[in-house]
Amino acid sequence: LKTIVDHKEIFEKIKDLLSRHVQINVDNLDYGTHLTIDRTEIWLETDPIYLTIGYGLSHVHYDPKHDNLKQGVEKLFKLLTKRKRITTYFKGDKIFKERTEIELQQGQFEHFGTTMTWWFPFWIRTTKEIQFQDPTIEFSKVEDEIREIYKLT
Question: How many Cβ atoms are within 10 Å of 33's Cβ, its own excluded?
Fold first, then answer.
């Protein structure tokens, strides 16, 4: 019998941790709570069903009834504590795709998400721009708190 983890409790613990280390914005919505981190594209949200981890438009929903919430928490803390590589694809001056990856170690990346528009001028040559974003939080400063949150998953 699978134990269902309370994703709202995990969200609250993460919110508490983040509020001690970075500037956050929290919006209480009709369906749940949305949290963003200032000067980043990292966000998370809780609603009656899911804990959602996002970066820009890319996001992953974790349903505690069917998914391993520990994987979602790990993904969030990787987004926060590791460097990100953002590859933006253009057709002319129009962005049509963006790929977000997390650097696990020097030169080794894990795909987080890809977003793409359904309409773009396919006949124009594709160019791309790669940007790196530094970690938002130093892992060593939150390591103990992260371990406590992992225990809830």
Answer: 16
3-state secondary structure of 126: strand
3-class SS of residue 116: strand
Tell me the average pLDDT of the chain. Answer: 93
What is the DSSP track for 10-71? Answer: HHHHHHHHHHHHS-EEEEE-SS-EEEEETTSSEEEEE-SS-EEEEETTEEEEE-TTTS-HHH
Please state the φ and ψ torsions of residue 130, each to the nearest 5 degrees.
-115, 130
CB 96 within 8 A of CB 116: yes
**3-state DSSP assignment of residue 83:** coil
Answer for the pair 120, 136: CB distance below 8 angstroms, yes or no: no
SS3 of the chain: helix, strand, coil, percent, to 5? 25, 40, 30
- Torsion angles phi and psi, residue 141, rounded to 5: -80, -20
Checking if the pLDDT of 2 tops 80, the result is no
Could you identify the residue written with the tokens 């594209």? Answer: 41
Answer whether residue 5 shows pLDDT above 80. no
Cα–Cα distances (Å) from 5 to 1, 48, 67, 152, in that order, read 13, 13, 10, 7
